[in-house]
Design a protein that fits this description.
By secondary structure, the protein is mainly β. Helix content is about 10%, strand content about 25%. It contains 11 helices and 31 strands. The strands form 6 sheets. It has a 9-stranded antiparallel beta sheet with strand order 14-15-17-18-19-24-23-22-21, with no helix packed on it. The structure holds MU-OXO-diiron and calcium ion (2 copies). One calcium ion binds next to loops.
């Protein structure tokens, strides 16, 4: 979610991390940064990078396309030699009996059968299951949030006072949130979706029942009038990035769940918990006027039922999706898995807010490729960890286990359920490192290294600041960090050459320190051959292509005064072209670039153009763009775009 457009609502800046844990690593880094001086801070603490080693050398990227120019207008732009085709738009019908999209019409029942709003994370799951088909698959999409002022006429600019939505509008709004599964096919070099595929599905906020699993399932703190068992939740909220598992299920992260509830959090028994997550009655989310469970005065536990990683099986349209409480309750951005050397599964996830943490979960059981059913509940049992990034280049994984260290009844943790409900506070107590907004995380299929996008944190204080959580630390070294960075975590490698994701210690360094490298105040680090159009800021989502190259999307190229739209950037992570980022695709004004997903052959990358036309003063009647339809009566529509090469080759080749 791009939070920089609005003055009075910033969902990633509302929780409160009051942790003041003494942290020796921060003390050391403070001393070191003081010694290094502000200008030398990044260089002094960054792991030696190939970019530096190659300074002055020739750039040899495996990516051969010419950068798209930075800039901003009402259209999409893709590199020469490529095509970018709109595949599916908000409101497109995805069921046999689904009605066509009608601009401006309020119709929740129709929306239940149409593609949702603000597509974010994408997974491409080949069909049939177990194949590597790159011409037929399931496109699985998150629908993070909505822009009511662009959906319907007569809605005031978002967040500018009570929008006064009708009950019908609230119902439609809830249906536009959630997830979609849509069958897609490639024929004659062009992708299309199958309107009446039996796989197509909406898992909406309004209509889909989720089972709650793991340590917090059935806990009193999750019980409501509608669900006295605390095991069933209707809907999923604000799914941002996500991931997938080796057994073909899709994972989604419930992110800014805190902004959807009315009522007074201070009057609930969960006042401290809700304050830590920034749960408060924002004007932008008036569901509780019409739907009781979104009013904390009526249903005080409802906010405890969101903020989880969800797992669903796109291959079985009748399956019940699950909220995996084992992975903790935070503002999850992504959730990406890797099979560790010993067969256990690791899942990495970040909490997207200023000064929040990076986490991993390691399953107790092992992945069994021959028995899909047995893997289906692997994520319910295991150990959750929070990360501490040490100055010596190691990363310590701190277990969040009830009964261990400070996570005891004396601190209000009576069971693992409490740890899984108040995960932020648990991570505060064990001394995790406060980061510059952890967003997407991806794992290289070639090296097993883990890449964490830290999007930016303009509130980061200098290293000598009095606040332990806010001052610069080794992994977040820049005060007033307006640009973001990508941290590379290297798990130990076993003798067999496999990454040990279960290890309690990894190593870390920087992959890219973002910002304009020509501007010395950014202290940016890239391969020196990165062009004026190849650099980026505000990295958000990240994925790998089959060749092991990282692809990064941005959410805030225009932050802090740049006249630049968000886009998609590729970069080698190994070899002579390491950290040489290249700009493949650019979004229209107001949009955020999300969800890059490759087909197994690497010849297509799907991207989500999220919230085109969003911005101050933008309304249904007067949007900044009408992409992709460009019809006078039609608002901009968040859409998935398929990017392919004109000669049919691999993207990047
Ligand atoms: Fe939904 Fe963290 O962006
Ligand atoms: Ca973001
Ligand atoms: Ca994001």
């Amino acid at each position: 979610m791009n939070a920089m457009h609005d003055d009075d609502f910033d969902p990633e800046d509302v929780g409160v991390n009051t942790s003041t844990q003494p942290d020796i690593q921060t003390v050391i880094s403070r001393r070191m940064l003081l010694a290094a001086g502000a200008a030398g801070a990044v260089a002094a603490i960054a792991a030696p990078s190939t970019a530096q080693a190659q300074a002055g050398g020739r750039a040899v990227s495996t990516l051969k396309f010419k950068d798209v120019k930075h800039g901003m207008d009402d259209k999409i732009h893709v590199a020469e030699g490529y095509r970018a085709d709109v595949l599916i738009r908000w409101g497109d019908p995805i069921a046999k009996d689904a009605p066509d999209f009608v601009p401006g019409k309020v119709d929740a029942a129709a929306q239940e059968k149409q593609f949702g709003y603000n597509c974010d994370f994408l997974a491409y799951q080949p069909l049939p299951y177990g194949s590597r088909s790159s011409s037929r698959g399931l496109l699985c999409s998150n629908h993070e949030y909505t822009n009511n002022e662009l959906m319907w006429p007569g809605i005031p600019v978002r967040n500018n006072g009570d929008k006064g939505l009708t009950k019908e509008q609230v119902e439609h709004d809830m249906s536009a949130h959630g997830l979609s599964v849509v069958e897609v096919r490639k024929s004659g070099g062009k992708w299309s979706y199958v309107k009446d595929s039996p796989y197509n599905r909406r898992l909406s906020m309004r209509g889909q029942v989720f089972r709650v699993a793991g340590p917090a399932a059935g806990h009193a703190r999750l019980k409501t009038k509608a669900d006295p068992t605390g095991t069933q939740v209707i809907g999923t909220l604000n799914n941002c990035a996500g991931g997938f598992t080796p057994w073909g299920t899709v994972l989604t992260g419930e992110e800014n769940f805190n902004g959807y509830f009315r009522g007074d959090p201070k009057k609930t028994p969960e006042a401290a918990n809700y304050a830590r997550y920034g749960v408060q009655p924002f004007r932008g989310a008036p569901w509780g006027v019409h739907v009781d469970r979104f009013d904390m005065d009526k249903e005080p536990n409802e906010p405890n039922r969101f903020g989880y990683v969800c797992e669903y099986d796109p291959y079985d349209p009748k399956s019940t999706p699950v909220k995996r409480t084992s992975i903790g309750r935070i503002k999850h951005e992504g959730a990406m898995t890797a099979v560790s050397a010993d067969g256990r599964v690791a899942l990495y996830t970040g909490d997207d807010e200023r000064f929040e943490y990076v986490y991993k979960f390691v399953t107790k059981g092992k992945f069994d490729p021959s028995r899909r059913e047995r893997n289906m509940n692997l994520l319910d049992e295991g150990t959750l960890y929070a990360a501490r990034f040490n100055e010596d280049g190691t990363c310590t994984w701190l277990p969040l286990v009830h009964g261990q260290g400070p996570l005891t009844a004396a601190n209000g943790f009576n069971s693992q359920a409490d740890v899984c409900i108040e995960t932020r506070r648990a991570a505060d107590l064990v001394g995790a490192t406060p980061m510059d907004r952890p967003e997407g995380i991806a794992i290289s299929p070639k090296t097993g290294k883990v890449y964490v996008c830290l999007t930016y944190n303009e509130r980061r204080k200098p290293a000598n600041d009095a606040s332990a959580r806010e001052r610069a630390n080794p992994a977040n070294p820049r005060a007033e960090n307006k640009w973001g960075q990508i941290v590379e975590i290297s798990p130990p490698v076993t003798r067999g050459g496999r990454a040990d994701h279960g290890a309690l210690t990894s190593r870390w360094g920087f992959f890219i320190v973002a910002g304009n490298p020509k501007d010395p105040k950014t202290q940016a680090q890239y391969h020196p051959a990165t062009t004026d159009d190849g650099w980026f800021q505000a990295p958000d989502n990240i994925t790998f292509d089959p060749k092991g190259r990282a692809w990064i999307t941005t959410d805030g190229m225009d932050n802090f005064g740049n006249d630049m739209a968000d886009g998609l950037y590729g970069a080698d992570t190994t070899g002579p072209g390491r950290a040489l980022s290249k700009h493949l695709f650019r979004t229209p004004v107001g949009a955020e670039m999300t969800g890059p997903a490759f087909t197994p052959d690497g010849r297509t990358v799907f991207v989500s153009v999220q919230h085109p036309g969003e911005g101050d003063k933008m309304t249904f009647e007067k949007p900044a763009t009408r992409w992709p339809d460009f019809k006078p009566d039609t608002p901009p529509r968040p859409s998935v775009v398929a990017i392919t090469k004109l000669d049919g080759g691999e993207v990047g080749s």
